[in-house]
Amino acid sequence: MKAARLLLVEDDKSLGATLESRLDREGYDVGWAESLCKAREILATNTPDLVILDIGLPDGSGFELATEIAMKAQKPPFLFLTALAGAPERLKGFELGAEEFIPKPFHLKELLLRIQHVLDAHRHVHASISSGQKIYFSHWCIDFASFTIQRQGQQAQKIAARDMGLLKLLIGERHKAVSRDEILDKLWGEENFPTNRTIDNAIVRLRQVFADTEEIAITSIRGVGYQWTGKIQD
Description:
single chain; alpha/beta; five-stranded parallel β-sheet; elongated
C-alpha cells in the first residue's frame, strides 16, 4: 500500500524534527513546513492525505491555513496540534472542520493513534462513496464517485469526503430521520471524538450547496437529527 502523505506545519525546530523522524519511521511520507508560506507552497502543488497544524506560527495563524484548506477543491483532512488549546480555540478549530484537536504537551502514542484513525476514517468514506452512483435532485446532479455536486449549466463543486459520506447516508435513509448518534457511529466512529457541532457544521455546508433552490433538501428534526426531504428523480 502506498504510504500516506502527511504535511506537518510546525515552527518549533526541535519538535518538528522529532515528529518528522518518528512519522517517517512509522511509514508515512512526511513533508515539514515551518511557516504558513512554506505550507502554502507545498499545498499549491500537492494534496496530502492529512495536514497536522500548529496555530501559533511565525507568519500568521494555523486557522488561516485551515480556512484556505476548506476552500480548496481537494480538501485534505486536518488536525490541530497546538499549545493554544483553550475552549475558544478548540471550538474554532472544529468549526473550521478539524478532525482532531490535540493540545501540547501530548503523548506521542496518542498522536499516532489519532492520525491513523483520521486516515482510516477517510479511506472508509472514500471507498463507500466511490461504489455509489449518480443521484439527481431538482437541478442538481450528485456524483458520489467523483465527490462532486453540479447544478445544471454550472461548474461542478468538489465536496469533502466526509460531507459527501453524510449526504449519501441521509439520501440512503431518506424514508426516516437519521439521528446524530447514528451519523457519528457510521461516519466518525467512537475513537475520533467528534461532537454534535461537527455534524451541524457539515449540514450547514451541504445546505449552502443546495441554497439556490426552492425545495428543501435537508430538514432538521427537532430532538432527533436530520432527514433528506428533497425529491430524488427516477
